[in-house]
């Protein structure tokens, strides 16, 4: 139901949410709601009465009726649901029930402080009997911008999930255990009559049609609405917004947006044109748009939200539409598509949400592909290279999912597990891909007939995946059983590859035969296309090849020799590894950095600058080769094959140096170990490393998931030549060989307002014939962060380290980072995290075998979304490097304090500037209070 899109580069994260309260949209209204609502702007609440006429449409007698009181999910700031969407509400919400009456008598009810209230019926309600339930309630609208709760900000109120709503009655009865979730996913077609009383200056739009307006005394107005066959309703109320209308065929579109006087009219015209264009496109491509009424509102909730006949778009997205922005139009076209897929044809949200989200994404992508360039042109926004690049990046971000997550089956009948384990990626993007691949098999027009037939037949019905495939097979006469197994039920992703290329020459002059052996594993059940380009540049194409169970041989006859071959050149098949689709393998050279390509080796070249005391600067050139596997370029840890080679020159020492590295993930092995090799030589000192990392247990990437946490266990071994301690400002050189196995355990959790990280590290230096150091080294790093209120956080860190034996200088514990101002490539800045953070002692390389440091911070969140923050920091550090841990005296303790600024994004990138103004033990001749600064950063990709 939610759809997370992240712009790494614009900090702002954009979240599209769709909540489909879904349904049996049968020919009759199953429930009749009559709501009388009064909005109170002083206390931000809705006081209301509700009359529900409920008819027992089941075959079972009913003694209890359950109501969903959604705001109560956010009643308690300690609740997981409240904390899970930590930035979305500033205060709790509630829906209080004052009385429940049936036939004029007070009825028993309980659970009214929870999300699901049970109303006990005075007498059994038999099939096809009706009952009328009268409820008095107050809904507190909290300050915030939530997509699962009514909320307000900047004078705009979003009324969603705000009234007592009858829970879904299943064939087998009520399911109270299912009702505990937020935003009741089930709805049945219902008739609504709503009267809404507002202060005069407020305007309202929503899912319903406005029938009449009555002026009341004391500057109040009563708006009377009604609507039929709706699964859910929502309203937006605001005082400083402006309403405009647009009539399109049989649909009235109502827009509600902030009135920024200057070019309101012109900009609103653009929105109208885009909305019309989308609806016309869908009406033409699918069926004519069915609703007589649709409201689109510029609001404050992140991303986009849709319910029946009502769409809320974040004001940034709304503005984006005015400027014909790709991303914004994607969100809008996705949400409009839900009026077909979700509110006209309804898939069972619990099991088959991919039919809603996959179709909405499919429709939006279809629209953008066909109309976006024209739209830009028409509105005089040329499709520049920049636009193309950002669109590319945007699409790439969409596709950059974890293989494990997208590898889920989109639908498994009789699944025993909770549907919520289905990742958003699976629902949205695998769903979209499955549909696009079906379109590729059948061709555009036949697949269009399939969709049209699907909408026609399933309109107002609960739809299943089986229904959809049955209709697809009937309409197309294509057997989808193999396809269904691979793409719907299975979790593995096929890999299509060129196994061998045989060129046969000298058959006859000007006669070349090229045999290409290709295979797919597991079977993709899709027709394959293959291109061959000959010496003179002619392209030969074979398409519609259905592969057998064994490797297949495709032959090309050409007059000149074949130079290039590419399998699935139009990228129609979604597969695991696209690099092996090319002959010869593609290599791209790029300066600095470029968007990842999934079908080629990318080699980047860029200058390097390393700073250290010995050399001042080393300048060099680096080549970095990268291969992104399986459309998940932003998560290299498990699948990236990477190497780099660099040479550099030290300005002061006049020495040449080099640095080589190669790392790869052995994907076919258990636990997919990552193996890295590194060799470098700076200042005439050689250093080499071999290490291997294995990830065990749950790894959840905070970028994509709503940050629940992960555990990692990394272990391996390193072998290196210890570098000289001259870099650490000492006169003696230290040389030697070092071998140490290591263990590293990391546990990170984010509970919203409370976060913790625990990291335990152990190194064991082994002395043998070839190595010189025998030692043990352990460290425990605990970090805790919790929110005091909206902006301020308290951060506490405790770092403890202990080592014994013959510890080489660079394996010591440092008061600030590791060699922070020494030996500094940009890379080694990353090492700052993980050792003592005594910011005031940065330049001094204070080190020892034991260390205890604590950092206490108050962090004031200056700006930020859920994923990126910019903090002002007040810090106090204290620490000690004792020779004996049991005999620490007060005098040994060192302190510093100061202020800082820090930017954090996605728990993956940190850039900080800290000013330790006060230092308890300054360098000789220096004042304890002075201007000092420390720069730090780390990357956690
Ligand atoms: Zn959606």
Outline the structure in words.
The protein is of the alpha+beta class and 941 residues long. Among the domains are: 31-187, Immunoglobulin-like; 495-573, Immunoglobulin-like, CATH 2.60.40; 696-939, no CATH class. It is 16% helix and 43% strand. The chain has a 10-stranded antiparallel beta sheet with strand order 40-41-42-43-44-47-48-49-50-51, with no helix packed on it. Strands 7-6-10-4-3-14-17-16 form an 8-stranded mixed beta sheet, with no helix packed on it. Strands 33-34-35-36-37-38-39 form a 7-stranded mixed beta sheet. Strand 36 (641-650) and strand 37 form a beta hairpin. It is globular and about 90 Å long. The model is unreliable at 1-27, 416-420, 631-638, 699-707, 725-730 and 818-834 (pLDDT under 50). The structure holds zinc ion.
User: What topology, given as strand order, has the largest sheet?
Assistant: 40-41-42-43-44-47-48-49-50-51
Largest sheet: 10 strands, antiparallel
Low-confidence regions: 1-27, 416-420, 631-638, 699-707, 725-730, 818-834
SS summary, helix count:
12
N-to-C CA distance: 28 Å
Task: Write down the Rg.
Answer: 32 Å
Number of strands: 51
Strand content: 35-45%
Average of per-residue pLDDT values: 82
Q: Structural class of the helix and strand makeup?
A: alpha+beta
Helix content: 10-25%
Q: List the ligand species.
A: zinc ion
Principal-axes geometry comes out as globular
